[in-house]
Amino acid sequence: MIRAGRTAVGRRELAAALGMAWSAFDRTKPHTVAGFPAPVSSEGSLVLLWDLEQVAAYRDGGPQPALPEGEDDGDLLDRREAAALLEVKPRSIDSYKTDPRLASHVVVVSGVEHWPRAAVRAYDAARGTVAGPQGRPRGSGDMVPRDLLPGRIAELLDANPAVTAAHAVDVLGVSTSAAQKHLQQERAARIAARMRAEPGLDAEQAADRLGYPPAVRRTALRAAQDLYDTP
């Protein structure tokens, strides 16, 4: 969770906080070094988040400030943590989150939805009363702004090359078609980049090197070849 009064960052913001270009960060993965601050995202999260104060202290060589203990109404809970507080499965949050009592409090951090502990508790206390339509309305807008979506998709692929469109829909709140489109485009771009970096590599081999399983890479291969062939 993101503790009250603290700021959390994802991989790209983490690179900026460390003063590194994204390409260098992606290559060296400094967050995997022993002693680096542990992520504050919930266990099993594909999009990892770090406490910015701890990162800054690590960068500057100082002692890492401890995270606050206990529970604070201002703590920001992700989907899994909100589900645990409500004693439901995470999938249930996908329905609950459009209720105005939660939707009006959502905070998106690096593409990951969070809700203040106080809002989740209030929702729990009021469950069973009518507060508006349930479920994601047909035709409703995407949760992540369109200009930010490519970066969020890139972070999902950084975390898990085999990420599915269904998971992108769950995490980012976008439509299935948008998730499929952007995943295909990002995979194609990465395959083409790997082919250029390793002459002689074909698209299938590049996809293998990148860890893309056949089920999620088929639609990206032709687009990648077109990108590679384009001067």
Verbal overview:
With 231 residues, this protein is mainly α. The protein has two domains: 1-136, no CATH class; 149-229, no CATH class. The protein has twelve helices and five strands. The strands form two sheets. Strands 3-5-4 form a three-stranded antiparallel beta sheet. Strands 1-2 form a two-stranded antiparallel ribbon. α8 packs across α10 (176-197). Residues 128-142 have low confidence and may be disordered.
What are the main properties of this structure?
single chain; 231 residues; mainly alpha; 2 domains; 3-stranded antiparallel β-sheet; two-stranded antiparallel ribbon; 12 helices
Distance between the termini: 45 Å
Return the string of H and E elements: EHHEHEHHHEEHHHHHH
Largest sheet: 3 strands, antiparallel
Number of helices: 12
Write out the strand line-up for the largest beta sheet, numbering strands in chain order: 3-5-4
Please tell me what the overall shape is: flat
Beta strands, count:
5
Structural category: mainly alpha
Quaternary state of this entry equals single chain
How many separate domains?
Answer: 2
Low-confidence stretches: 128-142
Radius of gyration equals 20 Å
Mean pLDDT: 85
Helix content: 40-55%
Percent strand equals 5-15%
